[in-house]
Write a structure and sequence with these properties.
The chain has 498 residues and is an alpha+beta fold. Helix content is 35%, strand content 22%. Strands 17-18-16-15-21-22-23 form a 7-stranded mixed β-sheet, with helices on both faces. α12 packs across α13 and α13 packs parallel to α14. The chain is globular and about 65 Å long. The termini are far apart.
Protein backbone atom coordinates (compact mmCIF):
# COMPACT_ATOMS: atom_id res chain seq x y z
CA UNK A 1 0.00 0.00 0.00
CA UNK A 2 1.49 3.32 -1.11
CA UNK A 3 0.82 7.04 -0.86
CA UNK A 4 1.69 9.61 -3.54
CA UNK A 5 2.54 13.22 -2.73
CA UNK A 6 3.01 16.18 -5.05
CA UNK A 7 4.68 19.49 -4.19
CA UNK A 8 4.04 22.28 -6.72
CA UNK A 9 6.92 24.70 -6.22
CA UNK A 10 8.03 27.73 -8.17
CA UNK A 11 11.38 26.09 -8.96
CA UNK A 12 10.14 22.57 -9.70
CA UNK A 13 7.35 20.06 -9.17
CA UNK A 14 8.26 17.16 -6.89
CA UNK A 15 6.64 13.73 -6.58
CA UNK A 16 7.23 11.28 -3.76
CA UNK A 17 6.00 7.72 -3.28
CA UNK A 18 5.79 6.50 0.32
CA UNK A 19 5.19 2.97 1.60
CA UNK A 20 2.32 3.49 4.02
CA UNK A 21 3.19 0.79 6.54
CA UNK A 22 6.76 1.91 7.22
CA UNK A 23 6.48 5.56 6.17
CA UNK A 24 9.63 5.06 4.09
CA UNK A 25 10.20 6.90 0.81
CA UNK A 26 10.51 4.39 -2.02
CA UNK A 27 10.84 6.82 -4.95
CA UNK A 28 11.09 10.55 -5.49
CA UNK A 29 11.89 12.87 -8.37
CA UNK A 30 11.38 16.42 -9.60
CA UNK A 31 10.98 18.27 -12.88
CA UNK A 32 12.16 20.35 -14.60
CA UNK A 33 15.81 19.58 -13.92
CA UNK A 34 16.71 23.23 -14.38
CA UNK A 35 14.81 25.82 -12.39
CA UNK A 36 11.34 26.52 -13.72
CA UNK A 37 11.27 29.93 -15.43
CA UNK A 38 9.46 32.84 -13.84
CA UNK A 39 7.96 35.31 -16.31
CA UNK A 40 8.69 38.93 -15.33
CA UNK A 41 7.37 41.22 -18.05
CA UNK A 42 7.65 44.25 -15.75
CA UNK A 43 9.65 44.98 -12.59
CA UNK A 44 8.00 43.32 -9.61
CA UNK A 45 5.97 40.91 -11.72
CA UNK A 46 6.26 37.13 -11.42
CA UNK A 47 4.11 34.69 -13.38
CA UNK A 48 4.14 31.04 -14.39
CA UNK A 49 2.00 29.01 -16.76
CA UNK A 50 -0.10 26.49 -14.80
CA UNK A 51 0.21 24.03 -17.68
CA UNK A 52 3.97 23.91 -17.00
CA UNK A 53 3.24 22.63 -13.48
CA UNK A 54 1.04 19.88 -14.92
CA UNK A 55 3.64 18.94 -17.53
CA UNK A 56 6.31 18.63 -14.83
CA UNK A 57 3.92 16.68 -12.61
CA UNK A 58 3.36 14.16 -15.41
CA UNK A 59 7.12 13.65 -15.81
CA UNK A 60 7.63 13.27 -12.06
CA UNK A 61 4.74 10.80 -11.82
CA UNK A 62 6.16 8.69 -14.64
CA UNK A 63 9.57 8.68 -12.97
CA UNK A 64 8.47 7.55 -9.50
CA UNK A 65 6.25 4.83 -10.92
CA UNK A 66 9.13 3.58 -13.06
CA UNK A 67 11.64 3.76 -10.18
CA UNK A 68 9.40 1.85 -7.79
CA UNK A 69 7.99 -0.66 -10.23
CA UNK A 70 4.68 -0.74 -8.38
CA UNK A 71 1.28 -1.09 -9.98
CA UNK A 72 -0.88 2.03 -10.09
CA UNK A 73 -3.64 0.35 -8.07
CA UNK A 74 -1.23 0.01 -5.12
CA UNK A 75 -1.48 3.80 -4.61
CA UNK A 76 -4.31 4.35 -2.14
CA UNK A 77 -4.31 8.14 -1.73
CA UNK A 78 -2.81 11.32 -3.19
CA UNK A 79 -1.84 14.56 -1.44
CA UNK A 80 -0.99 17.99 -2.85
CA UNK A 81 1.20 20.83 -1.56
CA UNK A 82 1.80 24.10 -3.39
CA UNK A 83 3.53 27.46 -3.55
CA UNK A 84 1.30 29.72 -1.48
CA UNK A 85 -0.62 32.92 -2.33
CA UNK A 86 -0.73 32.44 -6.12
CA UNK A 87 -3.72 33.23 -8.33
CA UNK A 88 -5.04 30.88 -11.03
CA UNK A 89 -8.16 31.89 -12.98
CA UNK A 90 -10.35 29.58 -15.05
CA UNK A 91 -13.49 30.01 -17.14
CA UNK A 92 -16.63 27.84 -17.17
CA UNK A 93 -14.82 25.27 -19.30
CA UNK A 94 -12.03 25.06 -16.70
CA UNK A 95 -9.61 26.67 -19.13
CA UNK A 96 -6.88 28.89 -17.67
CA UNK A 97 -7.47 32.53 -18.57
CA UNK A 98 -4.00 33.97 -18.01
CA UNK A 99 -0.63 32.97 -16.53
CA UNK A 100 -0.74 32.45 -12.77
CA UNK A 101 0.33 35.45 -10.70
CA UNK A 102 2.61 33.73 -8.18
CA UNK A 103 3.59 34.40 -4.59
CA UNK A 104 6.57 36.72 -5.20
CA UNK A 105 4.73 39.01 -7.64
CA UNK A 106 4.40 42.43 -5.98
CA UNK A 107 2.09 44.32 -8.35
CA UNK A 108 -0.88 44.01 -6.00
CA UNK A 109 0.73 45.74 -3.01
CA UNK A 110 -1.13 49.07 -3.55
CA UNK A 111 -4.46 47.25 -3.78
CA UNK A 112 -3.87 45.47 -0.50
CA UNK A 113 -2.74 48.66 1.20
CA UNK A 114 -5.86 50.54 0.09
CA UNK A 115 -8.06 47.69 1.34
CA UNK A 116 -6.22 47.67 4.68
CA UNK A 117 -6.92 51.38 5.12
CA UNK A 118 -10.52 51.23 3.89
CA UNK A 119 -11.61 48.17 5.89
CA UNK A 120 -9.59 49.43 8.83
CA UNK A 121 -6.31 48.12 10.29
CA UNK A 122 -7.87 46.94 13.56
CA UNK A 123 -10.68 45.09 11.80
CA UNK A 124 -8.35 43.51 9.25
CA UNK A 125 -5.94 42.27 11.88
CA UNK A 126 -8.57 41.07 14.35
CA UNK A 127 -10.69 39.31 11.70
CA UNK A 128 -8.27 38.37 8.89
CA UNK A 129 -5.15 38.23 11.13
CA UNK A 130 -3.30 39.96 8.28
CA UNK A 131 -3.35 42.97 6.03
CA UNK A 132 -4.70 42.04 2.58
CA UNK A 133 -1.18 43.02 1.55
CA UNK A 134 0.05 41.28 -1.58
CA UNK A 135 -1.99 38.10 -1.22
CA UNK A 136 -4.40 36.36 -3.57
CA UNK A 137 -7.34 38.69 -2.93
CA UNK A 138 -5.24 41.74 -3.81
CA UNK A 139 -3.91 39.98 -6.93
CA UNK A 140 -7.48 39.32 -8.05
CA UNK A 141 -8.27 43.01 -7.48
CA UNK A 142 -5.39 43.92 -9.80
CA UNK A 143 -6.86 41.69 -12.53
CA UNK A 144 -10.29 43.24 -12.04
CA UNK A 145 -8.97 46.76 -12.59
CA UNK A 146 -6.28 46.13 -15.20
CA UNK A 147 -7.62 43.19 -17.19
CA UNK A 148 -11.41 43.54 -17.20
CA UNK A 149 -11.66 41.37 -20.33
CA UNK A 150 -10.11 38.54 -18.29
CA UNK A 151 -12.10 39.29 -15.15
CA UNK A 152 -15.39 39.10 -17.06
CA UNK A 153 -14.62 35.51 -18.11
CA UNK A 154 -13.81 34.20 -14.61
CA UNK A 155 -15.76 31.27 -13.29
CA UNK A 156 -13.48 30.39 -10.36
CA UNK A 157 -10.25 31.59 -8.80
CA UNK A 158 -7.86 29.07 -7.30
CA UNK A 159 -4.51 28.63 -5.62
CA UNK A 160 -1.86 26.60 -7.49
CA UNK A 161 -2.64 23.38 -5.60
CA UNK A 162 -6.35 23.75 -6.28
CA UNK A 163 -5.53 23.90 -9.99
CA UNK A 164 -3.65 20.60 -9.69
CA UNK A 165 -6.59 19.18 -7.74
CA UNK A 166 -8.88 20.26 -10.58
CA UNK A 167 -6.62 18.62 -13.18
CA UNK A 168 -6.56 15.40 -11.16
CA UNK A 169 -10.25 15.13 -10.30
CA UNK A 170 -12.06 17.54 -12.64
CA UNK A 171 -13.52 19.17 -9.51
CA UNK A 172 -12.75 22.65 -8.14
CA UNK A 173 -12.44 23.10 -4.38
CA UNK A 174 -10.53 25.11 -1.79
CA UNK A 175 -9.87 24.64 1.92
CA UNK A 176 -10.19 27.10 4.81
CA UNK A 177 -6.40 26.97 5.03
CA UNK A 178 -6.23 28.03 1.37
CA UNK A 179 -8.83 30.75 1.79
CA UNK A 180 -6.94 32.10 4.79
CA UNK A 181 -3.65 32.26 2.84
CA UNK A 182 -5.47 34.23 0.15
CA UNK A 183 -6.88 36.51 2.91
CA UNK A 184 -10.50 35.61 2.20
CA UNK A 185 -11.27 34.07 5.62
CA UNK A 186 -12.75 35.84 8.64
CA UNK A 187 -11.42 34.05 11.73
CA UNK A 188 -13.64 35.94 14.15
CA UNK A 189 -16.81 35.06 12.23
CA UNK A 190 -15.62 31.65 11.04
CA UNK A 191 -16.65 32.21 7.42
CA UNK A 192 -15.74 33.92 4.16
CA UNK A 193 -14.88 37.55 4.75
CA UNK A 194 -17.74 39.80 3.69
CA UNK A 195 -15.43 42.77 4.24
CA UNK A 196 -12.90 41.56 1.65
CA UNK A 197 -15.47 40.37 -0.89
CA UNK A 198 -17.57 43.52 -0.60
CA UNK A 199 -14.65 45.98 -0.60
CA UNK A 200 -13.16 44.52 -3.77
CA UNK A 201 -16.56 43.83 -5.30
CA UNK A 202 -15.83 40.17 -6.01
CA UNK A 203 -18.64 37.88 -7.08
CA UNK A 204 -19.21 35.20 -4.45
CA UNK A 205 -19.67 32.68 -7.25
CA UNK A 206 -15.92 32.99 -7.92
CA UNK A 207 -15.18 31.18 -4.64
CA UNK A 208 -14.78 27.41 -5.08
CA UNK A 209 -16.64 24.91 -2.97
CA UNK A 210 -15.01 24.62 0.46
CA UNK A 211 -13.47 21.24 1.26
CA UNK A 212 -11.52 19.95 4.27
CA UNK A 213 -7.73 19.74 4.39
CA UNK A 214 -7.97 16.01 5.22
CA UNK A 215 -10.54 13.72 3.62
CA UNK A 216 -11.67 12.61 0.18
CA UNK A 217 -11.70 15.75 -1.99
CA UNK A 218 -12.26 14.01 -5.31
CA UNK A 219 -11.27 10.97 -7.35
CA UNK A 220 -8.71 10.79 -10.14
CA UNK A 221 -10.60 11.17 -13.41
CA UNK A 222 -10.29 8.85 -16.38
CA UNK A 223 -8.51 11.59 -18.35
CA UNK A 224 -5.97 12.31 -15.58
CA UNK A 225 -5.39 8.59 -14.99
CA UNK A 226 -4.58 8.11 -18.66
CA UNK A 227 -2.16 11.05 -18.68
CA UNK A 228 -0.37 10.15 -15.45
CA UNK A 229 -0.42 6.37 -15.47
CA UNK A 230 -2.53 6.31 -12.30
CA UNK A 231 -5.65 4.30 -11.54
CA UNK A 232 -8.96 6.01 -12.20
CA UNK A 233 -10.83 6.59 -8.94
CA UNK A 234 -7.75 6.97 -6.72
CA UNK A 235 -8.80 9.45 -4.00
CA UNK A 236 -7.17 12.85 -3.50
CA UNK A 237 -7.27 13.12 0.30
CA UNK A 238 -5.14 16.12 1.32
CA UNK A 239 -4.12 19.58 0.18
CA UNK A 240 -2.25 22.41 1.89
CA UNK A 241 0.05 25.32 1.12
CA UNK A 242 3.75 24.55 1.15
CA UNK A 243 4.58 26.03 4.54
CA UNK A 244 1.75 24.45 6.55
CA UNK A 245 2.57 21.25 4.67
CA UNK A 246 6.27 21.54 5.47
CA UNK A 247 5.35 21.86 9.14
CA UNK A 248 3.15 18.77 8.83
CA UNK A 249 6.01 16.85 7.18
CA UNK A 250 8.16 17.64 10.23
CA UNK A 251 5.41 16.55 12.65
CA UNK A 252 4.79 20.17 13.71
CA UNK A 253 1.15 20.35 14.76
CA UNK A 254 1.08 21.85 18.26
CA UNK A 255 1.60 25.28 19.85
CA UNK A 256 5.24 26.23 20.29
CA UNK A 257 6.56 23.90 17.58
CA UNK A 258 8.67 25.46 14.80
CA UNK A 259 9.49 24.41 11.22
CA UNK A 260 11.73 26.08 8.66
CA UNK A 261 12.46 25.89 4.94
CA UNK A 262 15.00 27.58 2.72
CA UNK A 263 14.14 26.93 -0.90
CA UNK A 264 13.48 29.72 -3.40
CA UNK A 265 12.16 31.67 -0.42
CA UNK A 266 12.95 31.12 3.24
CA UNK A 267 10.43 30.54 6.01
CA UNK A 268 10.22 30.15 9.76
CA UNK A 269 6.79 28.79 10.67
CA UNK A 270 5.45 28.36 14.19
CA UNK A 271 2.15 27.09 15.58
CA UNK A 272 -0.05 29.25 17.85
CA UNK A 273 -2.86 27.83 19.97
CA UNK A 274 -4.79 31.09 20.21
CA UNK A 275 -5.71 33.88 17.82
CA UNK A 276 -2.79 36.26 17.48
CA UNK A 277 -1.16 38.60 14.99
CA UNK A 278 1.63 41.12 14.55
CA UNK A 279 0.15 44.63 14.94
CA UNK A 280 2.28 45.78 11.98
CA UNK A 281 1.41 42.67 9.91
CA UNK A 282 5.08 41.97 9.14
CA UNK A 283 4.61 38.25 9.68
CA UNK A 284 1.49 36.40 8.64
CA UNK A 285 -1.01 34.25 10.49
CA UNK A 286 -3.00 31.59 8.64
CA UNK A 287 -5.00 28.48 9.46
CA UNK A 288 -2.70 25.53 10.11
CA UNK A 289 -3.55 22.13 8.61
CA UNK A 290 -5.24 20.97 11.84
CA UNK A 291 -7.12 24.20 12.54
CA UNK A 292 -10.83 23.71 13.23
CA UNK A 293 -13.66 25.76 14.66
CA UNK A 294 -13.26 23.78 17.89
CA UNK A 295 -9.44 23.78 18.06
CA UNK A 296 -7.44 26.90 17.22
CA UNK A 297 -4.23 26.00 15.42
CA UNK A 298 -2.70 28.92 13.55
CA UNK A 299 0.54 29.06 11.65
CA UNK A 300 2.67 32.18 12.10
CA UNK A 301 4.71 32.55 8.93
CA UNK A 302 7.85 34.59 8.53
CA UNK A 303 8.81 34.68 4.84
CA UNK A 304 11.99 35.99 3.24
CA UNK A 305 11.66 36.06 -0.55
CA UNK A 306 15.34 36.17 -1.48
CA UNK A 307 16.75 32.88 -0.17
CA UNK A 308 17.63 30.08 -2.59
CA UNK A 309 17.00 32.46 -5.48
CA UNK A 310 19.88 34.64 -4.20
CA UNK A 311 22.12 31.58 -3.97
CA UNK A 312 21.22 30.57 -7.53
CA UNK A 313 21.78 34.13 -8.80
CA UNK A 314 25.29 34.11 -7.31
CA UNK A 315 25.95 30.74 -8.93
CA UNK A 316 24.88 32.05 -12.34
CA UNK A 317 26.53 35.46 -12.15
CA UNK A 318 29.35 35.57 -9.59
CA UNK A 319 31.19 32.28 -9.07
CA UNK A 320 33.27 30.54 -11.71
CA UNK A 321 31.53 28.53 -14.40
CA UNK A 322 30.90 24.90 -13.53
CA UNK A 323 30.71 25.47 -9.77
CA UNK A 324 27.93 23.37 -8.21
CA UNK A 325 25.85 24.25 -5.17
CA UNK A 326 27.90 21.75 -3.19
CA UNK A 327 31.08 23.49 -4.36
CA UNK A 328 29.58 26.82 -3.28
CA UNK A 329 28.94 25.43 0.19
CA UNK A 330 32.58 24.36 0.37
CA UNK A 331 33.64 27.82 -0.80
CA UNK A 332 31.54 29.48 1.91
CA UNK A 333 33.25 27.36 4.56
CA UNK A 334 36.64 28.83 3.51
CA UNK A 335 35.53 32.28 4.72
CA UNK A 336 35.34 33.07 8.47
CA UNK A 337 32.25 34.01 10.49
CA UNK A 338 31.33 37.53 9.37
CA UNK A 339 32.78 37.09 5.85
CA UNK A 340 35.67 39.46 6.59
CA UNK A 341 33.30 42.39 7.02
CA UNK A 342 31.25 41.76 3.87
CA UNK A 343 27.44 42.02 4.16
CA UNK A 344 24.69 41.07 1.68
CA UNK A 345 21.15 42.40 2.03
CA UNK A 346 19.15 39.59 0.33
CA UNK A 347 15.89 41.37 -0.52
CA UNK A 348 16.00 41.19 -4.32
CA UNK A 349 12.96 39.05 -5.10
CA UNK A 350 9.98 41.37 -4.82
CA UNK A 351 8.38 43.18 -1.92
CA UNK A 352 9.23 41.87 1.55
CA UNK A 353 6.36 41.40 3.98
CA UNK A 354 8.47 41.88 7.10
CA UNK A 355 9.67 45.21 5.69
CA UNK A 356 6.13 46.49 5.29
CA UNK A 357 5.72 45.19 1.72
CA UNK A 358 8.59 47.38 0.52
CA UNK A 359 11.08 46.49 -2.20
CA UNK A 360 14.52 47.45 -0.93
CA UNK A 361 16.44 45.35 -3.45
CA UNK A 362 19.53 43.23 -2.89
CA UNK A 363 22.79 44.97 -2.12
CA UNK A 364 26.38 44.12 -1.19
CA UNK A 365 28.28 46.24 1.34
CA UNK A 366 31.83 46.57 2.58
CA UNK A 367 33.63 44.92 -0.32
CA UNK A 368 37.39 45.36 -0.32
CA UNK A 369 39.13 44.49 -3.59
CA UNK A 370 42.31 43.51 -1.74
CA UNK A 371 40.89 40.93 0.69
CA UNK A 372 37.57 39.62 -0.57
CA UNK A 373 37.13 36.61 -2.82
CA UNK A 374 34.34 34.49 -4.25
CA UNK A 375 34.32 32.54 -1.00
CA UNK A 376 33.57 35.67 1.02
CA UNK A 377 30.73 36.70 -1.30
CA UNK A 378 29.15 33.24 -1.14
CA UNK A 379 29.39 33.16 2.65
CA UNK A 380 28.13 36.73 3.03
CA UNK A 381 25.08 35.84 0.93
CA UNK A 382 24.31 32.79 3.09
CA UNK A 383 24.86 34.80 6.26
CA UNK A 384 22.68 37.60 4.92
CA UNK A 385 19.83 35.16 4.40
CA UNK A 386 20.20 33.83 7.93
CA UNK A 387 20.37 37.35 9.36
CA UNK A 388 17.07 38.13 7.65
CA UNK A 389 15.68 35.04 9.42
CA UNK A 390 16.94 36.44 12.74
CA UNK A 391 15.38 39.84 12.01
CA UNK A 392 12.00 38.21 11.43
CA UNK A 393 12.31 35.90 14.43
CA UNK A 394 12.67 38.98 16.62
CA UNK A 395 9.20 39.99 15.40
CA UNK A 396 7.84 36.52 16.16
CA UNK A 397 9.36 36.63 19.64
CA UNK A 398 7.48 39.88 20.19
CA UNK A 399 4.27 37.92 19.59
CA UNK A 400 5.19 35.55 22.42
CA UNK A 401 6.78 32.75 20.41
CA UNK A 402 9.68 30.92 22.05
CA UNK A 403 12.04 29.71 19.32
CA UNK A 404 14.43 27.26 20.93
CA UNK A 405 14.15 24.36 18.45
CA UNK A 406 13.91 24.58 14.66
CA UNK A 407 13.06 21.51 12.57
CA UNK A 408 13.88 21.48 8.86
CA UNK A 409 14.17 19.11 5.93
CA UNK A 410 17.70 18.28 4.83
CA UNK A 411 17.33 20.12 1.53
CA UNK A 412 18.09 23.34 -0.34
CA UNK A 413 20.00 25.88 1.77
CA UNK A 414 19.97 23.54 4.77
CA UNK A 415 22.44 21.36 2.85
CA UNK A 416 25.04 24.07 3.55
CA UNK A 417 26.94 23.58 6.84
CA UNK A 418 27.63 27.32 6.93
CA UNK A 419 23.94 28.17 6.56
CA UNK A 420 22.69 25.83 9.28
CA UNK A 421 25.54 26.58 11.72
CA UNK A 422 24.94 30.32 11.25
CA UNK A 423 21.20 29.83 11.87
CA UNK A 424 21.86 27.94 15.11
CA UNK A 425 24.55 30.41 16.12
CA UNK A 426 22.58 33.61 15.52
CA UNK A 427 19.19 32.35 16.78
CA UNK A 428 20.43 30.45 19.81
CA UNK A 429 18.13 27.60 18.74
CA UNK A 430 19.02 23.98 18.13
CA UNK A 431 18.47 23.00 14.48
CA UNK A 432 17.30 19.45 13.70
CA UNK A 433 17.42 18.13 10.13
CA UNK A 434 15.16 15.37 8.84
CA UNK A 435 14.92 13.24 5.72
CA UNK A 436 11.72 14.69 4.36
CA UNK A 437 10.41 17.22 1.87
CA UNK A 438 7.14 18.78 0.80
CA UNK A 439 6.13 15.92 -1.48
CA UNK A 440 6.78 13.35 1.28
CA UNK A 441 4.72 15.48 3.65
CA UNK A 442 1.87 15.61 1.13
CA UNK A 443 1.97 11.82 0.89
CA UNK A 444 1.75 11.54 4.68
CA UNK A 445 -1.10 14.04 4.72
CA UNK A 446 -2.91 11.91 2.15
CA UNK A 447 -2.55 8.94 4.49
CA UNK A 448 -4.16 10.92 7.31
CA UNK A 449 -6.95 12.08 5.01
CA UNK A 450 -7.61 8.55 3.78
CA UNK A 451 -7.83 7.21 7.33
CA UNK A 452 -4.75 5.03 6.89
CA UNK A 453 -3.13 6.93 9.77
CA UNK A 454 -5.04 7.96 12.88
CA UNK A 455 -2.90 11.03 13.55
CA UNK A 456 0.08 13.05 12.44
CA UNK A 457 2.18 11.33 15.09
CA UNK A 458 1.40 7.96 13.50
CA UNK A 459 1.89 9.28 9.96
CA UNK A 460 5.38 10.56 10.70
CA UNK A 461 6.50 8.02 13.30
CA UNK A 462 9.24 6.87 10.93
CA UNK A 463 10.64 10.37 10.37
CA UNK A 464 14.43 10.03 10.34
CA UNK A 465 16.48 12.69 12.10
CA UNK A 466 19.73 13.14 10.18
CA UNK A 467 21.60 15.81 12.11
CA UNK A 468 21.45 18.09 15.15
CA UNK A 469 23.21 21.46 15.01
CA UNK A 470 23.69 23.18 18.34
CA UNK A 471 24.43 26.90 18.88
CA UNK A 472 28.11 27.82 19.14
CA UNK A 473 28.69 29.81 22.34
CA UNK A 474 32.31 30.38 21.38
CA UNK A 475 31.22 32.22 18.22
CA UNK A 476 28.21 34.05 19.64
CA UNK A 477 29.85 37.48 19.78
CA UNK A 478 31.17 37.15 16.22
CA UNK A 479 27.72 36.20 14.91
CA UNK A 480 26.12 39.06 16.83
CA UNK A 481 28.64 41.60 15.55
CA UNK A 482 28.11 40.45 11.96
CA UNK A 483 24.33 40.60 12.38
CA UNK A 484 24.31 44.14 13.78
CA UNK A 485 26.67 45.31 11.05
CA UNK A 486 24.30 43.72 8.51
CA UNK A 487 21.29 45.41 10.08
CA UNK A 488 22.97 48.80 9.82
CA UNK A 489 22.81 48.48 6.04
CA UNK A 490 19.01 48.22 6.06
CA UNK A 491 17.04 51.41 5.30
CA UNK A 492 16.95 53.54 8.42
CA UNK A 493 13.36 52.79 9.44
CA UNK A 494 14.15 49.05 9.69
CA UNK A 495 17.34 49.27 11.70
CA UNK A 496 15.75 49.72 15.12
CA UNK A 497 12.49 49.43 16.94
CA UNK A 498 11.37 45.87 16.25
Amino acid sequence: MYLLGYDIGSSSVKACLVEAGSGKIVARDFFPKTEMPIIAEKPGWAEQHPQSWWTSLKLASESVLKQSGIAADAIKAIGISWQMHGLVLVDRNKQVLRPAIIWCDSRAVPYGEKAFAAIGPEKCLSHLLNSPGNFTAAKLAWVKENEPHIYDQIDKFMLPGDYIGMKLTDEIAMTVEGLSEGVFWDFKEGKLSDDVLDYFGFERSFVPEITSVFGVQGLVSAAAAAELGLKEGTPVCYRAGDQPNNALSLNVFHPGEIASTAGTSGVVYGVLGQVGYDPQSRVNTFAHVNHTAEQTRLGVLLCINGTGILNSWIRRNIVSAGISYSDMNSLAAQSPVGSKGLSVIPFGNGSERMLGNRETGCSLHGINFNIHSQADIVRAAQEGIVFSFRYGMEIMSGMGMDISLIRAGNANMFLSPVFRRTLAGISGATVELYDTDGAAGAAGGAGIGAGIYASGTEAFAGLERLAVIEPEPENYERYEAAYHRWKNYLPGQYQEGL
